C-alpha cells in the first residue's frame, strides 16, 4: 500500500493528543497540541493538533472555523479533532505555495462539503473520516492536488461527477462505512491506483470503473452486489475483494488477461458456479494467485479442468457433496492455504453435506436454514484456527 509511512505518523499523533482536562493551553513536544483555536499564539507552526480524542472532556468546545485562519504557508501537518461545528468558506481560495503532508479532520460536524471551505492546495494525505458528511458539492474538491483521500465513516449516499479531485496525482480513494448507493460515471480519475468502497449499499458500478486503467487494488466487500462489476479494462489489478456480497455466479472470463493478480477474495457470497476456475489467468510468476471462494454454495467442482497450478485455492465452508468431495484426482496440482488445511483437520467444523439423506428440491426455506446452520458452525469456530484465511 502506498504512503504507509504517512499513515503510521497519524497513529503516533492520535496517541499524543491527550490534554489534561483542567488545562486550556498549547503543549509542544513532538508536535504542538492545542485545546482550542483560541489557544494558538504561534502562527508559524509546521505541525499542529487542535482538539482531543478525549470526547468526555471537551463536549462544549466545538466552534465555527475558517481554515485560512489556521493553515499557514509553513504548515505540513494539521489535525482538527472534535472542534468544528460549522466550517466557513475561506476568503483566500487558493494556496499555490502550500504543500502539506497530512490534513486530518476527525469527529467534527460538516454535513456538506462546499466550494471554498477548503483552500485549493497540495496535500499528500487528506482525511475527512467521521465528520457526518452527507454531501459533497460538485467542484468542492475537484481542483485539490491530493494523493490519498479518505472519506470513511460518514453518511454519503451519492458521489456526483465533479465532486472528487481530478488531479493527475490522485492515487488512493477510500470511502468505507458510508451509505453509498450511487457513484456517477466519470467521478474517479484515471490515474487512481487504489479504490476502497467497503461497507456501503452499492448494487452496481455501471461504467464507473471503465476508465481506471491503472487501478491495482479494488475493494468492494460488505455491499449488495449480485453481479461482479465489469473489470475488463483493469489489466493491472493485483487485489480484488468482493467478499460479503450477494454474488450468485461469476462469468468465466471475469479475470481474463489479468496476469498481475495476487489476491481474489469472493468469500461469503452465494456463488454456486465454479466455471471461473477453468479460465483463471495463467502466469509463471513465483508468487501464486490466492483465489478464495470460501463460504459460498459450491456443491461440486471438476478440479481436473481447473487451471490451478499457480493458484492457492481456498474452498472451505462450501456445501460440498460428500459423495463427490472424497474423489480427488491423484495427478491434480492443487495448493491449499495453511488455514484451509487446519479447518479440514480440526474435526470441529462440517466439511460436506450428505445430499442422499434428504430431499430439499421443493423446500427452499428448509434448505436456507441448513445453509445458515452450516456456515454459522464454521464461523463460530473460526477463532480457534488463529490465522487469516485469505491473506
From TrEMBL:
Keywords: Signal. One of its GO terms (cellular component) is extracellular space. Residues 1-24 form the signal peptide. Transmembrane segments: none annotated. It comes from the Eukaryota. This is Uncharacterized protein. It comes from Zophobas morio.
Amino acid at each position: 500500500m502506498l504512503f504507509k509511512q504517512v499513515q503510521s505518523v497519524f497513529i503516533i499523533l492520535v496517541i499524543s493528543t491527550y490534554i489534561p482536562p483542567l488545562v486550556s493551553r498549547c503543549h509542544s513536544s513532538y508536535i504542538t497540541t492545542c485545546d482550542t483555536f483560541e489557544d494558538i499564539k504561534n502562527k508559524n507552526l509546521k505541525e499542529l493538533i487542535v482538539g482531543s480524542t478525549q470526547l468526555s472532556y471537551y463536549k462544549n468546545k466545538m466552534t465555527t472555523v475558517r481554515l485560512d485562519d489556521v493553515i499557514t504557508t509553513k504548515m505540513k501537518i494539521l489535525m482538527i479533532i472534535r472542534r468544528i461545528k460549522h466550517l466557513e468558506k475561506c476568503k483566500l481560495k487558493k494556496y499555490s505555495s502550500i504543500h502539506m503532508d497530512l490534513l486530518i479532520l476527525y469527529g467534527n460536524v460538516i454535513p456538506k462539503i462546499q466550494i471554498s471551505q477548503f483552500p485549493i492546495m497540495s496535500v499528500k494525505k487528506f482525511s475527512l473520516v467521521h465528520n457526518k458528511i452527507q454531501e459533497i458539492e460538485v467542484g468542492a474538491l475537484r481542483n485539490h492536488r491530493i494523493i490519498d483521500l479518505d472519506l470513511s465513516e460518514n453518511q454519503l449516499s451519492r458521489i456526483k461527477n465533479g465532486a472528487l479531485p481530478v488531479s493527475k496525482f490522485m492515487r488512493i480513494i477510500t470511502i468505507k462505512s458510508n451509505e453509498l448507493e450511487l457513484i456517477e460515471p466519470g467521478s474517479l480519475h484515471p490515474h487512481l491506483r487504489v479504490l476502497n468502497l467497503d461497507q456501503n449499499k452499492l448494487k452496481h458500478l455501471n461504467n464507473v470503473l471503465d476508465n481506471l486503467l491503472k487501478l491495482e487494488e479494488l475493494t468492494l466487500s460488505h455491499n449488495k452486489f449480485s453481479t461482479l462489476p465489469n473489470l475488463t479494462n483493469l489489466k493491472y489489478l493485483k487485489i480484488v475483494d468482493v467478499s460479503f456480497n450477494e454474488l450468485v455466479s461469476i462469468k468465466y472470463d471475469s479475470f481474463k488477461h489479468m496476469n498481475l493478480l495476487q489476491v481474489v477474495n469472493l468469500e461469503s457470497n452465494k456463488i454456486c458456479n465454479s466455471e471461473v476456475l477453468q479460465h483463471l489467468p495463467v502466469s509463471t510468476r513465483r508468487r501464486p494467485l490466492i483465489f478464495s471462494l470460501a463460504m459460498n454454495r459450491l456443491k461440486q467442482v471438476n478440479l481436473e479442468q481447473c487451471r490451478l497450478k499457480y493458484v492457492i485455492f481456498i474452498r472451505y465452508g462450501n456445501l460440498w457433496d460428500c459423495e463427490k468431495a472424497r474423489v480427488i484426482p491423484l495427478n491434480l496440482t492443487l495448493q491449499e492455504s495453511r488455514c484451509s488445511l487446519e479447518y479440514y483437520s480440526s474435526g470441529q467444523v462440517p466439511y460436506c453435506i450428505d445430499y442422499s439423506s434428504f430431499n430439499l428440491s421443493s423446500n427452499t426455506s428448509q434448505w436456507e436454514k441448513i445453509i445458515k446452520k452450516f456456515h454459522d458452525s464454521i464461523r463460530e469456530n473460526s477463532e480457534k484456527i488463529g490465522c487469516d484465511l485469505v491473506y
